[in-house]
Amino acid sequence: MKARVHVMLKDGVLDPQGEAVRHALGALGFSGVEGVRQGKVIELDLADGTSEAEIGEMCEKLLANTVIESYRIELL
Protein backbone atom coordinates (compact mmCIF):
# COMPACT_ATOMS: atom_id res chain seq x y z
CA MET A 1 0.00 0.00 0.00
CA LYS A 2 1.23 3.48 -0.80
CA ALA A 3 0.24 6.89 0.47
CA ARG A 4 1.27 10.36 -0.56
CA VAL A 5 1.21 13.20 1.97
CA HIS A 6 1.08 16.78 0.67
CA VAL A 7 2.36 19.33 3.22
CA MET A 8 1.91 23.07 2.72
CA LEU A 9 2.29 26.15 4.86
CA LYS A 10 -1.05 27.37 6.18
CA ASP A 11 -2.60 30.49 4.67
CA GLY A 12 -1.20 33.59 6.32
CA VAL A 13 2.18 32.02 7.12
CA LEU A 14 5.05 33.71 5.31
CA ASP A 15 6.72 31.49 2.71
CA PRO A 16 10.28 32.80 2.13
CA GLN A 17 11.18 29.91 -0.19
CA GLY A 18 8.10 30.54 -2.30
CA GLU A 19 8.92 34.25 -2.44
CA ALA A 20 12.50 33.45 -3.54
CA VAL A 21 11.15 31.22 -6.33
CA ARG A 22 8.69 33.95 -7.41
CA HIS A 23 11.50 36.50 -7.50
CA ALA A 24 13.79 34.15 -9.48
CA LEU A 25 11.04 33.42 -12.00
CA GLY A 26 10.58 37.16 -12.49
CA ALA A 27 14.32 37.57 -13.02
CA LEU A 28 14.13 34.87 -15.71
CA GLY A 29 11.47 36.84 -17.55
CA PHE A 30 8.33 35.10 -16.24
CA SER A 31 6.55 38.29 -15.22
CA GLY A 32 3.09 36.73 -14.93
CA VAL A 33 3.82 34.89 -11.68
CA GLU A 34 2.18 36.82 -8.83
CA GLY A 35 2.72 34.34 -6.01
CA VAL A 36 4.36 31.01 -5.19
CA ARG A 37 3.73 28.68 -2.26
CA GLN A 38 6.24 25.89 -1.83
CA GLY A 39 5.48 22.66 -0.04
CA LYS A 40 6.65 19.08 0.12
CA VAL A 41 5.35 15.70 -0.95
CA ILE A 42 6.17 12.60 1.09
CA GLU A 43 5.53 9.14 -0.37
CA LEU A 44 5.11 6.28 2.08
CA ASP A 45 5.32 2.56 1.34
CA LEU A 46 3.11 1.02 3.99
CA ALA A 47 2.16 -2.44 5.17
CA ASP A 48 -1.28 -3.58 4.02
CA GLY A 49 -3.89 -2.68 6.56
CA THR A 50 -2.29 0.60 7.63
CA SER A 51 -5.22 2.92 8.29
CA GLU A 52 -5.63 6.49 7.17
CA ALA A 53 -5.93 7.36 10.87
CA GLU A 54 -2.44 5.93 11.46
CA ILE A 55 -1.09 7.99 8.57
CA GLY A 56 -2.74 11.05 10.08
CA GLU A 57 -1.03 10.30 13.38
CA MET A 58 2.32 10.09 11.53
CA CYS A 59 1.62 13.52 10.07
CA GLU A 60 0.63 14.99 13.42
CA LYS A 61 3.69 13.60 15.21
CA LEU A 62 6.44 13.96 12.60
CA LEU A 63 5.68 14.67 8.97
CA ALA A 64 4.02 18.09 9.36
CA ASN A 65 4.47 20.94 11.80
CA THR A 66 0.76 21.40 12.36
CA VAL A 67 1.25 24.80 14.01
CA ILE A 68 2.21 26.33 10.64
CA GLU A 69 1.54 23.56 8.10
CA SER A 70 -1.49 21.70 6.82
CA TYR A 71 -1.43 18.29 5.19
CA ARG A 72 -3.53 16.19 2.87
CA ILE A 73 -3.32 12.39 2.64
CA GLU A 74 -3.72 10.67 -0.71
CA LEU A 75 -4.03 6.88 -0.73
CA LEU A 76 -2.56 5.32 -3.88
Automatic annotation (TrEMBL):
Entry protein name: Phosphoribosylformylglycinamidine synthase subunit PurS
SUPFAM superfamilies named among the record's database cross-references: PurS-like (SSF82697)
Catalytic activity line of the entry: N(2)-formyl-N(1)-(5-phospho-beta-D-ribosyl)glycinamide + L-glutamine + ATP + H2O = 2-formamido-N(1)-(5-O-phospho-beta-D-ribosyl)acetamidine + L-glutamate + ADP + phosphate + H(+)
Assembly mode: Part of the FGAM synthase complex composed of 1 PurL, 1 PurQ and 2 PurS subunits.
Organism: Tranquillimonas rosea
Localization of this protein: Cytoplasm
Pathway in which the depicted protein is active: Purine metabolism; IMP biosynthesis via de novo pathway; 5-amino-1-(5-phospho-D-ribosyl)imidazole from N(2)-formyl-N(1)-(5-phospho-D-ribosyl)glycinamide: step 1/2
GO terms under biological process: 'de novo' IMP biosynthetic process
CC per GO annotation: cytoplasm
Top EC class, one word: ligase
Gene3D superfamilies associated with the record: Phosphoribosylformylglycinamidine synthase subunit PurS (3.30.1280.10)
Its job: Part of the phosphoribosylformylglycinamidine synthase complex involved in the purines biosynthetic pathway. Catalyzes the ATP-dependent conversion of formylglycinamide ribonucleotide (FGAR) and glutamine to yield formylglycinamidine ribonucleotide (FGAM) and glutamate. The FGAM synthase complex is composed of three subunits. PurQ produces an ammonia molecule by converting glutamine to glutamate. PurL transfers the ammonia molecule to FGAR to form FGAM in an ATP-dependent manner.
PANTHER family: PHOSPHORIBOSYLFORMYLGLYCINAMIDINE SYNTHASE SUBUNIT PURS
InterPro entries referenced in this protein's UniProt entry, alphabetically: PurS, PurS-like_sf
Molecular-function annotations in GO: ATP binding; phosphoribosylformylglycinamidine synthase activity
EC number annotated for this UniProt entry: 6.3.5.3
Keywords linked to the UniProt accession: ATP-binding, Cytoplasm, Ligase, Nucleotide-binding, Purine biosynthesis
Family statement drawn from the similarity comment of this UniProt entry: Belongs to the PurS family.
